[in-house]
């Protein structure tokens, strides 16, 4: 059975990023140069950026689904309220269309199921890895998104580069062209942000 949870999600991300490092980036690294990146380096960096962005999306989605799934299970199986449960309930209005008064247990269970469905839809809608999307996804789960300015700036740079390579190549390629060394540093920062987010999710004990 496949392991789940913050540690497993982070480990899978790190393995994939390491493979991508080896395949696309490491052989381009070397002493600083005043020359612009070669065409081969630019294309390898482009592939690297798009694939790392996808890996981070998968990490974020898996982490969010694990947190909300654990919270729902803790209530339905153990009647245990957690910080995540409380955050979900505070963000969820409970409809009561049939006029019946459910039990307290069912009231919380239904609210959690609605919240779980909403979070699952947010994940399925695949809105990327911008800071705004991360906050929309994780704050209702009671998980703080890291705010380190260096790490968040690197995440936004990765998002910008990925968007340009994925959607604007026919208009002349990415305007933000970085060397393999620069992009490797950016991705290292993004993995550090992922590590902090994983630790935040684990710490709330959903």
Give the overall shape, derived from the CA principal axes. elongated
**Helix-strand string:** HHHHHHH
Percentage of residues assigned to helices: 55-70%
**Terminus-to-terminus distance:** 21 Å
Report the structural category.
mainly alpha
Q: How would a textbook summarize the main sheet?
A: none
User: What oligomeric state best describes the polypeptide chains here?
Assistant: single chain
- Can you give the mean pLDDT? 87
Q: What is the C-alpha radius of gyration, as a whole number of Å?
A: 20 Å
Number of strands: 0
Beta percentage is under 5%
Can you tell me the residue ranges where pLDDT is under 50 for at least 5 consecutive residues? Answer: none
Tally of separate helices = 7
Features:
single chain, mainly alpha, 206 residues, elongated
What does this 3D model show about the protein?
The structure is a single chain. With 206 residues, this protein is mostly helical. It has a domain at 6-67 and 128-203. The protein is built from seven helices and no strands. The protein has helices spanning 6-25, 39-78, 83-90, 104-124, 131-138, 149-167, 180-203. The mean pLDDT is 87.
Offer a quick outline of the entry.
The longest helix is centred in the N-terminal third of the chain and has 40 residues, at 39-78. With 206 residues, this protein is mostly helical.
Chain-wise SSE layout:
Blueprint: H1 6-25, H2 39-78, H3 83-90, H4 104-124, H5 131-138, H6 149-167, H7 180-203
Helix pairs in contact: 1-2, 1-7, 2-4, 2-6, 2-7, 6-7
């Amino acid at each position: 059975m496949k392991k789940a949870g913050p540690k497993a999600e982070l480990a899978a991300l790190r393995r994939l990023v390491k493979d991508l490092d080896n395949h696309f980036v490491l052989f381009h690294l070397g002493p600083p140069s005043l020359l612009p990146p070669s065409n081969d380096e630019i294309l390898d960096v482009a592939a690297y950026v798009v694939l790392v962005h996808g890996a981070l999306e998968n990490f974020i989605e898996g982490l969010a689904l694990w947190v909300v799934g654990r919270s729902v299970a803790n209530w339905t199986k153990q009647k245990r309220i957690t910080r995540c449960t409380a955050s979900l309930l505070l963000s969820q209005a409970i409809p009561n269309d049939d006029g019946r008064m459910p039990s307290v247990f069912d009231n919380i269970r239904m609210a959690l199921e609605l919240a779980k469905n909403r979070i699952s839809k947010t994940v399925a809608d695949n809105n990327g890895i911008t800071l705004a999307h991360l906050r929309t996804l994780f704050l209702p789960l009671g998980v703080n998104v890291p705010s380190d300015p260096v790490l968040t700036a690197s995440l936004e740079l990765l998002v910008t580069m990925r968007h340009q390579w994925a959607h604007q190549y026919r208009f002349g390629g990415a305007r933000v062209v970085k060397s393999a060394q620069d992009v490797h540093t950016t991705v290292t920062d993004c993995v550090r942000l992922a590590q902090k987010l994983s630790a935040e999710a684990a710490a709330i004990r959903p």
